[in-house]
Amino acid sequence: MSVLEKPPPEAEEHTGHHHHDPFWRRYIFSQDHKVIGLQYALTAMFFLLFGFFLMILMRWQLAWPGRPIPLIAGLLGEANAPGGIMLPEFYNQLGAMHGTIMVFLGVVPLLVGAFGNYVVPLQIGAPDMAFPKLNMASYWCYLPGGLVMFSSFFVPGGAANSGWTSYPPLSTIATQGQTWWLIGMVLLITSSLLGSVNFIVTIFQLRAKGLTFMKLPFFVHAQLVTSFLLLLAFPPLEAAGIFQLLDRVLNTSFFSPSGLVVAGEVVDKVGGGSPLLWQHLFWFLAHPEVYVLILPAMGIVAEVIANNTRKPLWGYKSMVYASIFLGFMSFIVWAHHMFLTGMGTTISSFFQTTTMIISVPSVVILSALLISLWGGSIRFNTPMLFALAFLPMFGIGGLTGLPLGLAPTDIHLHDTYYVIGHFHYVVAPGTIFAIFAGIYYWFPKITGRKLSEGLGKLHFWPSFIFINGIFGPMFIQGLAGVSRRLWDGGQQYAHAQPVLEWNVFMSMSAFGLLIAQLPFIVNLFWSIRKGQKVDSNPWQATTLEWAAAPSPPIGHGNFHEVPVVHHGPYEYSAPGAPNGYLPQTAPGKEG
Amino acid sequence: MQIPYTVEERPDTGLYNAKLGIWLFLASEVMLFGALFSSYVLLRTGDPGFMTIPHEVAEALGLHGEAHRWSDELSVPLAFVNTLVLIFSSVTIVMSWASLRLKEFAKFRLWMGLTILCAFGFMGIKAVEYSAKFSHHLYPETSNFLGIYFTLTGLHGLHVVGGLIVLVYLWGPGSKMWKSQPRRFVNRVETVGLYWHFVDLVWIFLFPTLYLL
């Protein structure tokens, strides 16, 4: 700003006089990235738990179809589960909403909304996000979107029941809950648009002095690529959502073919639409979305691994370029979800080729993380355990994806439990374990106290065992040909009989996983008040967020003085460094 | 600590925050309208009867003889006038920004006022077109061509209205900022100008694809 100009009147509110703000400005309609990050974290963890409960209900039904659900049967309502016995229609609602809630309301808001918001400005040495008001608006689009989704369970006919993919024409003729689903999605897409613009501008514009792109922590690179994916891939789904909303509300026929017959009667629409068009638009988002789920998770794992092996990441630059290439390629692989639609072998060949190519950068990143362990004196604390578990779990998830990416094998495996096993290995013991690693790793920065290590290990080990008990047998069932959509878990199908026994095993594992989360929940509440107090840098880390005070004060301005960066992000085991590591702000040769 | 580069440019990127922000927003808008246009292409090529008015509907509309096309029902002269109106408004908004750069506030008021009039004019002509369709009982559900027509022009119209609200604000109460923070105010006009050009550009694609092809 030129010296001649008066400082803007808003300048005053940026100087840290926030303790005068009323409660609702400080904690509810807050414009501080840390408070918004925590709002996202708490809301998304609630939805993650809610989505998990939906899955527990499904697992009960799959293991013991036709048996009344114990304890909570009364809460489900006679329309959904008369006498506590689940109806197929209700099972379909649970399936559609479990997927939607876990992806759009749980994992992405945690990775981007919570970790991104809290950590990125700190890691780049910025006082806040570039647009605090947009940041607030982003949360306040997310929350209503979530509430619309949640309340859709209580409308006549219940929540959306056409799968999380909402394929027409089924979704066009589905009950009212589908309209609520679409309205919820439009709100979530708006929230994600506001967030992604904000992240990109923040990372480009607000980096501290000396923090060049190749000195950014890998987590920031991952968030940057993720934001570009959200920015560019979501609008086509928004277009598709608008079309489907009009199909349902104004009776248009964008996705309705001519002569569609439902329950013996021709549907009253002009027809001529294309159900396949929805699939193209949907997967144009939903495939990049997979990388939205995995890239920030890889970012968290990279931070935790570098910190706990006490040595620089192996192949940092390759990882950065791989993540950019991954982001680019993710836009041209979407139709590998559609090999069975009859779109033609030429198109299938193209998409299976690009799919094989996109596995290369994922392997580069995973290999770099694995080789980073080589020769390190590893500290096995709770964040590191979760980060280490991520590597083989994501590895299994990725490798089992290869047969799905090739059309000949996918024709057999499509829509079986094999697919469910594959992507849950990527997202559940993969991404969600990375989220846990991040929570244990950054909790001391947020609260000034460490989470209990004992409870942490009590959380990790059972979770690690039970989660494999759920998803491992899915590969066996899927290879036997059991469809993912059966509300009775395959009881009525002859080919499913030899693998049916796994249903009880998997469901028991799921209940075990639920119990294994109790130490975590106890740990969160206990450690906020009673956890071990720590200074600003308890993990002896190098990146900038650890230069800020523990539990940095609310209000714009995270650092006592503007940080100046002299070093790369992971200068651990640096020769001659005081404690064996050089924080990015340590005085150095270059300016 | 204040958020840097809200007003002045960051030296290495050459941009102030809002300018990068609006470019990114426009990139996502390109993807939105790109998907809408692509859907139009796919629906049209996927259905041989996409453009043809069914015989009984044509009779009801008072059309006789050979096969009629849905696009013939749209008014090319009105849309052409609207195209000129929007292109002219893109010129006037640049003039309003340039006037501010030359520190001539009265001229800014004039050019911005003209832009606002153009926007109202566009929406007025659009309203005439829509009501003509409705009076002939042509609705989005009547055919997929009309569905696409109403969806695309409707979303474009929403973008015009959104821009219009900001333009009126900057012309009226928002212009007080010219006194307190002139540079920031010029930035705001530049940013909304970029958005306005995009809205104009979308129409320039919409006009031939819907009315002429």
Explain how this protein is built.
The complex is a heterodimer of chains A (591) and B (213). With 591 residues, chain A is an all-alpha fold. Helix content of chain A is 59%, strand content 1%. Chain A has a two-stranded antiparallel ribbon with strand order 1-2. In chain A, helix 4 (88-123) runs parallel beside helix 6, helix 7 (218-249) packs antiparallel against helix 8 (275-309) and helix 15 (453-479) runs antiparallel to helix 17. In chain A, 54% of the residues are buried. The model of chain A is unreliable at 1-18 (pLDDT under 50). By secondary structure, chain B is mainly alpha-helical. The N and C termini of chain B lie far apart (56 Å). In chain B, helix 4 packs antiparallel against helix 5 (144-171). Chain B is elongated, with a radius of gyration of 21 Å. The longest helix of chain B is centred in the middle third of the chain and has 31 residues, at 105-135. In chain B, 36% of the residues are buried. Chain B has helices at residues 17-46, 55-60, 76-101, 105-135, 144-171, 177-180, 182-212. Classes of the chains: A mainly alpha (591), B mainly alpha (213). Chains A and B meet through helix 6, helix 7 and helix 8 of A and helix 1, helix 5 and helix 7 of B.
